[in-house]
Every structure is written in structure tokens, then in C-alpha cells.
Amino acid sequence: MKKFNFTIVGVTTLALILAAVTGTRAKGDEFGAVVKTIEQFYHVKHQSIPFLGRAGMKAATTAARIRGGQYRRLAEAGSIKVAFFENQDFNSRGGITNFKASLTNAIGDSWSLLVQTLSPKNEEQTYIFIRNAGEKINVLVVTLERREGVVVQVNISPRNLALLMQSPEDMGKAITNDATQNDN
Amino acid sequence: MKKLLQTILRLASLSMLLILLAAGAAMAQGPRLQTSSLDYLAAKASQTVDVNIDEHLMQMTAKFFSSTDPDERNIKKLVSGLKGIYVKVFEFEHEGEYSAADVESIRSQLRGTAWTRIVNINSKREGSVEVYLMTTGDQISALAVLAADPKELTVVNIIGPVDLTKLSELEGQFGVPDLGIEPPAKTKPKN
Fold first, then answer.
1. In A6, A35, A167, B4, which residue has its Cα 20 to 30 A from B89's Cα atom?
2. Global model pTM greater than 0.80
């Protein structure tokens, strides 16, 4: 009976710790949680520091082409978070769909999955999550290929989102290019 | 006493089953198709595209298109009133990688009285293309397309006032693939 009580106390404590951890994540660093999930799932390591400099937070003239039309700045200045995975092995060993479950669990309920493209044979996958942030929209893009990956989080205006929505399949590429291109 | 308990349990199970069936039927009659039964195909498919534009996003999108720019004005008009666009496309390397049961899991939801299949539809695509409309009174409240090629399975579900003209204009936009659907020609009234 005593052993049983200890088990209950143990399980309850563990549940409380897990709830606290989940609660902390829900309040903020989903970008970090996503990067960590990729690292844990694929046993890879991200590089962020050299590229964060390169990503050019001044965000003056970085642009992306939207549906062959005019060039526009997409990401709001100072809002860009980027994590790169270069020259690493993204091999899901047939479990690419399991990765999605880990990812959606990591990002939490406040984000909606807008677009998902998968190509299991080539180990290519793109996920675009969005979240309302007052007058702006938070967009988080995860792009993984066989040997490299990028996670980008930016704030964009609803108008830019509206324009990008016309071609949701190209949206991830446009945002990633915008966030990682340095044309200073 | 034991018998009574067993009877109560049986009745409770039966009631639960009936409630679940009723809920399932109600869900199947809604404009939003449940496509999660197809999700397992993503592991088999050579390419999967899944687009989910919900009502909030749809309305926001419509709001931010310019009314002065002619192109944007057209798009604004096209998407105004829409309450969602949901698209799932599975492309396969070989034939027979999805089953008739997979198609049936979607088709069965479209068999209710709320949905009407449009029969005189032509598509430039190979395979079968089925188009369904849901109407509420005189208004179209949703549209569904189920396109099954030997190597491709597509489900498009547009919620809101959308007709075939609108569908063909939406092709290639907002995640709606090119379905090659030709709206039925209007027949001239006989004199």
C-alpha cells in the first residue's frame, strides 16, 4: 500500500513538472522548442550565430518576389529568428510522418499549421505555422532537406500574408529567402 | 442484481454508440470534410501538399487586398465571403498505392442529403473528378472536389458561397490545384 502511495506521488510530481515545462513553452519560445525537436529527432545540431549576423537584422531592402509581381519586404525589421542546419543528415528512416507529430507537439496550440509539403523519398519537408500577434502575424517556417535545414520565425504584416497566401506552396521559400538573404 | 447491472451497462453502451453515430452523421453533414483518415498516405506518397486556410485567415486575407488595384480587386471579390479552403494532394510514384476505401472515406461524407453531385462536369485531367455542392436554401454553402487519378488523390473543400466559375478562377491560387474543370456550358433556352 505504501509502495502504491509512493507511485502515485511520483507520477503526480512528474505530471506537475511536465505541465510546468509545457506551460513555460506555451508562453514563449516555440522557435527554440522547434529547433530542439529537430535536433532531438534527427540527432543534428543547429548553427545560428554566424548566420544571424548574415541575416542582416537591419532589414532595409531584403525583398522577395511575390507571384512574379513587385518586390516587397516581407519580414518586419528585428523580428527575424533563424537557425540553420548545414551539411547534416536528415534521415527519418521512414518516420517522416512521426516528425510532424513531434513538431506540432513542440509548437503548441497557439499556432496553426497553414501549409505542409512532404516528399518522404527525398526527405524534403516544409511546414508553415502562423499565429495572430495583434497587428502582425507570426510566421514560423521549417524547411528540411536531406542534408540541410532552416527554421525561420518572422513577423509579417497581414497584407503581406494576404499576398503570400495566393501561392501558399511558395510561401515558405519566399519567407526563408527573405529572412536569410543579405543584400547590404 | 447482477443481471440488472449488466442490463444497465448494455443500455449505457448502446446509448453511447447511438450518440457517437449521431455525432458522426452530424459531422459528415457539415461543410468541412474530415480528411484525417488519409493522413497515413503521406508516408507512402512521393509528394504531399496540405493547405488549411481557415475562416479567420480567409477573412483577413480578403480584407487586405486592395480595392484599387484591378488584379487585387478581382482576388478580393473572389475570396470575399469564403470561410475556408482546405486542400490535400497526394502524389504517388506507382499506381495502386491508395485504396478504394481511402476514396470511400471521403465519398461517404458527401453522400448525405446536404451534398449534391454535379454530374455534367468535364475535366481535362485523367481519372475521375467528382464535384459536389452543398446548398443551404438557395445559397451554395460549400464545394468539394474529389479527384482520383491512378497516381494522385486530391481533395479540395471550399467553404462559403462558391460556384464552379469561382472554382475555376481559384485554380492555381490559395493552394487550390489545377483541376482542369470546365464549367458546364449554359444551354440556351428553347423558343
1. A35
2. no
